[in-house]
């Protein structure tokens, strides 16, 4: 057995350190409520009848409804302020005769075990109760609630018998009990004889729970004939795991969104760079064409000035300028025009030399 409480019994100047053990146990066959279709356990949820939401145990407080329909709630601080005995002491109030205790007041029974050093005072209290045929009336605080109790002897042990309070005993309010009933002496004598014939010493070991025995037999029979099935394992709901799963899902979605955004930006940037590069390349080619055209035009003008009034030079120069401008469309044509422009300049130079020689001969 495991002790549920420890303290001391105090009477007069004597203190007996003890441990308290439950003296009884319940042997009822306990059943679970299950779903007949699949064997799943039936669970009950704490729901608020006003809002319909499930309420956690931490959010539940004690409420008292007055006869006027008003609700008064008490929280842990309110309960802590109540004058409840918290000491671990069983105080003996008085010793009363055994036959004055109404068994209707009995509640639960507990064995008292003395500490090693308290064996003598424990035995002294036990024998004193036996010798005087009395029971000790005490007060004790079990499970943070003070209760009335008795100390009585059972064999070699002292039993702590908790009791209900006297105002918790209901009175039998049956009108028929007040009816006068006439009993004849012969009837009373026969009833007494029947009682005497059925008289015996009480031995509780002769009695047992026949209903419980029949229930155990029924269960064993079903188990033997293959009516048993594996109990289904309920799915465990771990809120922390759900929260972590939700967090991971959110993080994954964020990463995917970031990658998608980055890919779109890179594609757009790449397209712009290609267009920009193409534009710069086109602009560069255009500049080269303009430079070549300008160079060809200058050479043509130079050739035309040297040729003076030579019609052939002028014609070729104009033709060179026209062809130079067409180099913006083709590089091969540009090279051809440059060659033609150079030839025109040389030819013009030759004409100039011939004209100069003719003027010199006239002067002479």
Automatic annotation (TrEMBL):
Alphabetized, the UniProt keywords read: DNA damage, DNA recombination, DNA repair, DNA-binding
Question: What is a biological process (GO) this protein takes part in?
Answer: double-strand break repair via nonhomologous end joining
Database matches in InterPro entries? DNA_bd_Ku70/Ku80 (IPR006164), Prok_Ku (IPR009187), SPOC-like_C_dom_sf (IPR016194)
- Annotated Ku domain residues: 52-180
Q: Kindly give the Pfam families that the UniProt entry links to this protein.
A: Ku
Q: Where is the composition biased (Basic residues)?
A: 355-364
SMART domains given in the database record: Ku78 (SM00559)
Does Transferase show up as a keyword for this record? no
**What's the domain of life for this entry?**
Bacteria
RNA-binding found in the keyword field: no
Skewed-composition ranges (Low complexity): 260-330
Q: What does this protein do?
A: With LigD forms a non-homologous end joining (NHEJ) DNA repair enzyme, which repairs dsDNA breaks with reduced fidelity. Binds linear dsDNA with 5'- and 3'- overhangs but not closed circular dsDNA nor ssDNA. Recruits and stimulates the ligase activity of LigD.
What HAMAP family does its record include?
Answer: Prokaryotic_Ku
Q: Which family does it belong to?
A: Belongs to the prokaryotic Ku family.
Q: How does it associate, per the subunit comment? A: Homodimer. Interacts with LigD.
Instruction: Quote the protein name from its UniProt record.
Output: Non-homologous end joining protein Ku
């Amino acid at each position: 057995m495991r002790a549920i409480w420890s303290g001391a019994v105090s009477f007069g100047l004597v203190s007996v350190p003890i441990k308290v053990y439950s003296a009884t146990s319940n042997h009822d066959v306990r059943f679970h409520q299950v779903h007949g279709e699949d064997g799943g356990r039936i669970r009950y949820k704490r729901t608020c009848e006003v809002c319909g939401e499930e309420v956690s145990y931490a959010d539940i407080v004690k409420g008292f409804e007055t006869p006027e329909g008003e609700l008064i709630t008490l929280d842990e601080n309110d309960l802590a302020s109540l004058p409840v005995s918290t000491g671990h002491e069983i105080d003996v109030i008085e010793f009363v005769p055994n036959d004055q205790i109404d068994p209707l007041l009995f509640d639960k029974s507990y064995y008292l075990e003395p500490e090693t050093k308290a064996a003598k005072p424990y035995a002294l209290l036990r024998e004193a109760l036996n010798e005087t045929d009395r029971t000790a009336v005490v007060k004790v605080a079990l499970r943070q609630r003070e209760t009335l109790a008795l100390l009585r002897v059972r064999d070699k042990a002292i039993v702590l018998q908790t009791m209900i309070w006297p105002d918790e005993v209901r009175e039998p309010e049956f009108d028929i009990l007040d009816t006068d009933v006439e009993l004849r002496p012969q009837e009373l004598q026969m009833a007494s004889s029947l009682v005497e014939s059925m008289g015996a010493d009480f031995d509780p070991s002769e009695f047992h729970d026949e209903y419980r025995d029949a229930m155990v037999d029924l269960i064993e029979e079903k188990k033997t004939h293959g009516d048993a099935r594996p109990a289904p394992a309920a799915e465990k709901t771990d809120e922390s795991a759900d929260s972590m799963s939700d967090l991971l899902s959110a993080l994954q979605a964020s990463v995917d969104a970031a990658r998608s955004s980055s890919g779109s930006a890179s594609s757009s940037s790449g397209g712009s760079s290609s267009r920009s590069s193409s534009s710069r390349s086109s602009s560069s080619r255009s500049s080269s064409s303009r430079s070549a055209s300008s160079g060809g035009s200058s050479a043509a003008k130079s050739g035309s000035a040297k040729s003076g009034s030579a019609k052939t030079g002028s014609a070729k120069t104009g033709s060179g300028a026209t062809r130079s401008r067409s180099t913006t469309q083709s590089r091969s044509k540009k090279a051809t025009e440059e060659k033609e422009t150079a030839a025109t300049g040389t030819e013009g130079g030759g004409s100039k030399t011939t004209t100069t020689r003719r003027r010199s001969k006239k002067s002479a």
